[in-house]
Amino acid sequence: CYRKNGNLERAITELYRVIDIKPDYIKAYIKLIEILKETEQKEDILPLYKKDLEIEPKKASLHAEFARYCKELDEHNYVYRFEAAIAHTLVGQTEKAIELYDELLKRNPNNISIIYNKGYTYKMQGDADIAIELYKKAIQRDAHYDAAHFALGMAYLIKGDFERGWKKHARYLKQTNRN
Fold first, then answer.
1. Distance from C-alpha of 69 to C-alpha of 71, rounded to nearest angstrom
2. Which end of the chain, N or C, is less packed with Cβ atoms under 10 Å?
3. Mean pLDDT across 61-79
4. Contact by Cβ (8 Å): 27, 15
5. Kind and range of the H or E element at 97?
6. CB-based burial of residue 127 (10 Å sphere; 0-12 exposed, 13-18 middle, 19+ buried)?
7. Is the Cβ–Cβ distance between 39 and 10 less than 8 Å?
């Protein structure tokens, strides 16, 4: 109601209170982002998008919106390109996602998040062989990257290599139970 009355600063304060009380209430984040865009408070928006993505990590429209916002700031920004690649993967535009991951890897060839997500994109595309190679590459760079071990096990299972697939899953479960 504060927003309707033109009191945007009060609306911002009240929305932050709602978020403090109920940190998983996504609608409060969305409304707050809208108001912050109106009031040109761009520096406060990025952490809100990140929190939204923590709450709903698989929501493709949220990744796409975040990517558009980052592009407004700087279309050559690493975060924009990474989020855009994730969004393209989630909506089935795997070729575009792979293109973006390739661009990112040219600048940062050892980034395990990019390598892992590119593997996931290939898996979504139905190419388990390339996904396996990328997951192995991510694990070579960080042997404790549990998500890559899990994904590698899944890719092996997709290919019908049950021995390696279950072995990777056993390793993943052992590691995650330890943590």
1. 5
2. C
3. 69
4. no
5. helix 94-107
6. middle
7. no
- The whole-angstrom separation of Cα 153 and Cα 103 is 27
**C-alpha of 178 from chain center:** 25
What residue has token string 């070729």?
Answer: 95
Indicate whether 75 pLDDT > 70: no
Say which amino acid occupies 119.
Answer: G
**What's the chain's length in residues?**
179
Local structure of 49: helix, strand or coil: helix
Task: Please say whether the beta carbons of 138 and 116 come within 8 A.
Answer: yes
Band of pLDDT at residue 78, cut at 50, 70 and 90:
confident
- Radius of gyration, alpha carbons of the chain: 20
Q: What percent of the chain has pLDDT over 90?
A: 34
Lowest pLDDT segment from 13-22, 53-62, 109-118 = 53-62
Inform me whether the pLDDT recorded for 95 exceeds 90. yes
Asked if residues 22 and 32 have their Cβ atoms less than 8 Å apart, the reply is: no
